Amino acid sequence: MMCKVKSVNCLLLLAAFINEALCIADYSIPTPVSHRIRKRAICPSTSECIPLRSCPVLSTILDNQCVLEDKLTEISCGYKGSGLVCCPQPESNSINRVGSSNPGKFVEGIKCGQSQVEGDGYDGIGAYPWVVRIGFRNVLTGETKFPCTGSIISSKVVLTAAHCPLAKAENYKLSIVRAGEWATDTDIDCGEEFCGLPVQDIPISHVIVHPGYEKGTYRHNIALLVLKTKIKYGVTAQPICLPESWSVTSNNGILVGWGKTAGQTETPLQQQNLFLPIVSLGQCERVYGKTLPISEEQVCAGGEREQDACSGFGGAPLLVRHSETYYQVGILSFGSDQCGAAGVPSVYTNTKKYITWIRENSPQLI
């Protein structure tokens, strides 16, 4: 129903509301289905996508017959006809620098560690939007290969294992980070529910490797990739949360990447996730201790038969989930040539032990 504007003050109130709450959708949603887009994904961080009747600010405007139908469309969100609007929320003082990860905290105004797609057991497009591929370009042919993985911790910084950017291959040079990819054989990823935007290939400016990194022992196997331009956040590109002083107690880990897993002879075309138990360091010590040192700077995960990463997952994030939020507790460092053997876990860099180093070495955003 069309509403009549009754006064200048009313019009100004509406204009202010739209300016505050205007949606910024960057993907398409054909229909509402079981795996639906989490509504706050298409509203600014200062607003929330909620039912119209639940937004007191807009209710006041409606009571004064201020809203024209076309203007109400401008602040709607969710799928067409959902009755949802971007409602301004009180400003939060909890916006942090890169690496902040306490519950309710933000990275650059975005809630870290939250997939914008809902659905029990959903692992399709946008399920793990902080995982990126790291590309090496052939200086002779221009071909780009993606041998390892990283994670978005801010729009200009990707976290990975040090052995990845330092890898040497004839004629290949570290080149880009590819964000927003799910399937490797399509230009635009589409699922049953929605399509994402084209991938973002962001040139790498420089690499910051931990000064204590030891190639032969994988000690301090951690690095930051600083990008030349910012990653644009959206459904398929979001920052992950990093653990800090509070304790991550979950022993249920999730590894995400594009490599081969136990029993696979070819690398799948789609992003994979593995649910792995986080086990004691003693178990890794028994497997690797005679050849490689195991310390508190590492995390041990896996060891179940036919359930482990075998190749191509280097630098991939090991995640735990608390409520709706994911935290990165590890970076895949190395594993055994007995991939998928019972009692043989893989070793990860313990992210929690490097939070200070990450903070001190992550450039301030401009």
Structure description:
There is one protein chain. By secondary structure, this protein is mainly beta. It has three domains: 47-88, 2-Layer Sandwich (mini-chromosome maintenance (MCM) complex, chain A, domain 1); 110-239 and 357-361, Trypsin-like serine proteases (Thrombin, subunit H); 252-351, Trypsin-like serine proteases (Thrombin, subunit H), CATH 2.40.10.10. The protein contains five helices and 20 strands. It has helices spanning 8-21, 56-63, 69-74, 281-288, 355-361; strands at 47-51, 76-77, 84-88, 95-96, 106-107, 110-111, 131-138, 144-154, 157-160, 172-179, 200-209, 223-227, 252-257, 260-261, 272-279, 298-302, 309-311, 317-322, 325-334, 345-350. It has a six-stranded antiparallel β-barrel with strand order 7-8-9-12-11-10. It has a six-stranded antiparallel beta barrel with strand order 13-15-16-20-19-18. A hairpin with a 5-residue loop joins β7 (131-138) and β8 (144-154). It is globular, with a radius of gyration of 22 Å.
Task: Summarize the topology.
Blueprint: H1 8-21, E1 47-51, H2 56-63, H3 69-74, E2 76-77, E3 84-88, E4 95-96, E5 106-107, E6 110-111, E7 131-138, E8 144-154, E9 157-160, E10 172-179, E11 200-209, E12 223-227, E13 252-257, E14 260-261, E15 272-279, H4 281-288, E16 298-302, E17 309-311, E18 317-322, E19 325-334, E20 345-350, H5 355-361
Keywords: Disulfide bond, Glycoprotein, Signal
Protein name: Peptidase S1 domain-containing protein
Signal peptide: 1-23
